[in-house]
Specification:
Layout lengths: L10 H8 L3 H8 L3 H8 L7 H11 L19 H14 L6
Helix pairs in contact: 2-3
């Protein structure tokens, strides 16, 4: 993970809370322990099917494995603002249909 980036996974925290070692999870998943370590350190992202398997093996909700994103600031998102601008420009004829 480069400087300034924030990890999105809480895999390490979930494993710690449940008392599960990376090596045990790696063995159950059939992956190299280094892979699990890199997931835990947010250096690489697990494929969706691996994330599901981690949740299954640890009896966790997939949402527990992710950093919560429900604390966004009030107002429209950047995508909503961009869509509104696009729609306005389309209405006034700047963008061809």
């Amino acid at each position: 993970m480069s400087k300034g980036e924030r990890g999105i996974y809480r895999i390490a925290a979930v494993l710690k809370d449940k008392g599960i070692d990376n090596k045990v999870l790696a063995e159950l998943m059939g992956v190299n322990p280094e892979t699990v370590s890199r997931w835990c350190n947010n250096e690489i992202q697990p494929k969706p099917e691996n994330l599901y398997r981690i949740a299954e093996l640890t009896k966790s909700n997939i949402q527990e494995l992710l950093i919560p994103t429900n604390k966004w600031p009030e107002g429209m998102s950047k995508a909503e603002e961009a869509q509104k601008k696009y729609d306005m420009e389309k209405r006034i004829g700047r963008i061809k249909k």
